[in-house]
Amino acid sequence: MSLKLPIYLDNNATTPCDPRVLEEMLPYFAEKFGNAASRNHPFGWVAEEAVDYAREQVAKLVNATPKEIIFTSGATEADNLALKGVFEMYSSKGNHIITCTTEHKAVLDTCKHIEKMGGEIAYLPVKADGLIDLGELEKAITSKTILIAIMYGNNEIGVIQPIREISAIAKKHGILFFTDATQAAGKIPVDVEADGIDLMAFSAHKMYGPKGVGALYVRRKSPRVKVTAQMDGGGHERGMRSGTMNVPGIVGFGKACEICMNEMEAEATRLSTMRDRLEKGLLQMEEAYVNGNTDHRLPHVANISFKYVEGEGLMMGFNKNIALSSGSACTSASLEPSYVLKALGLGDDLAHSSLRFGLGRFTTDEQIDYTIKAITETVLKLREMSPLWEMYKEGIDLNSIEWAHH
Amino acid sequence: MAYSEKVIDHYQNPKNVGTLDKSKQNVGTGLVGAPECGDVMRLQIEVDETTGLIKDAKFKTFGCGSAIASSSLATEWLKGKTVDQALTIDNMDIVEELNLPPVKIHCSVLAEDAIKAAINDYRVKNGLEELVLDEKKH
Known about the structure:
The complex is a heterodimer.
Chain A: E1 7-8, H1 19-25, H2 27-30, H3 42-61, E2 69-72, H4 75-89, E3 96-100, H5 105-116, E4 120-124, H6 134-140, E5 145-149, H7 163-172, E6 176-180, E7 199-203, E8 214-218, H8 247-282, E9 288-290, E10 301-306, H9 311-316, E11 322-323, E12 325-326, H10 339-343, H11 348-352, E13 354-358, H12 365-384, H13 387-393
Parallel strand pairs in A: 1-11, 3-4, 3-5, 5-6, 6-7
Antiparallel strand pairs in A: 2-8, 7-8, 9-10, 10-13, 12-13
Helix pairs in contact in A: 1-8, 3-8, 4-5, 8-12
Chain B: H1 5-12, E1 27-34, E2 39-47, E3 54-62, H2 65-78, H3 83-86, H4 91-98, H5 105-125
Helix pairs in contact in B: 1-2, 2-5, 4-5
């Protein structure tokens, strides 16, 4: 079989909708179009039944009960609802939230907003491997702390935070624990009971479901967690998220969860095997480094820095044929490289030289072979063109040079 | 962001990549930018001592496609010019020739700075006064 180009290796950004998911969704656009809140006729009943079934499928994936699943428009909305909703609901208890510097912008920007509303946020640093320090976490807790918000798996480097240890600390201090599991749910076993999670955001389009639908898990027992609604209206989703249900999206989300659950074990093994092969192939080159902890990492993610070449320039060498992301943004508006990589303590030079690989359900061995070859060729070519590489080869310490910063 | 045809062509077939002997009296070297900013350009000129013309120009660049293309184009334009003529190359000429979008204008500024830094290096080596250059905003 000939290799079809372009190759998609940006599955952390979004995943294609699985054909099995799409098939399940299709009847709910034109034929079974009812409003799930229409209680008095068959059109509504059919839609409601479909939503109920999907809610079960979604709940099952994370070992929750269906009533604990609040459907949203995606993980960003779920992050907003969790953080702002807890901040408002528990304001009599305190105004302090602990998060970390490598969280997704949907969490960090929401925290910034909460600061303007009078909240206090502690941003924990991460260690060089991307994991938080549990001692630091415990030290950051104050009598005003109401919530710990630490992500499950990181979207740029794939590192998995010590969720059970974090939730144990939260429980010990009587603080709620929220996790953004957008990258982890559906990829690795996520169990809200065993993991001790009180609130959790996740999204369909990162697990081969449609865009525009996600969920917030809100614990109902020990403790019973409540959030203040951020969207007012008809009181849908137990009053926590008003708005007409996105029935086809929710049906697709449910199916996506079911497939992920059934195939997770085999798929995680397949992906980590391919990812490791990709990494091994690329690390044949000198001065190439993996970013983040490799023992606690999502199976489908790799983040590699190729020293002395710039990420955007590097991608240009193959981005017609291979789709992936770079930690570098070379624009006059933003000369800042990835804040996640910088949080690991990477120098700007290494952060500018990074590529993020997100493998997925439809990634093949053949595609990995092609990718190793194409990227190796481009890195070698650009290094021949790089003054920094030449200096490195001549034994010049780049830090000894007085660069003209602009 | 889509790159222009010309940027892609320079990226794929860069002109004058390489290194000149910087210890030679008639070679001027300019090294501008910083690794932390995501682009570093090194541009070199070799001046023919009898004619005063730039007989060779080489570059090496660490940076995005636009930075590579800007420096590649600059070396092409430098060849055959006198040192004084080379000083008149303006970054906006590069922007126009390569159709650089606004977010990539700093790449052309860097190329102009590299040209001027190389010329200054050459001037100082040859007992000429160092030119005071206007700092363009990157």
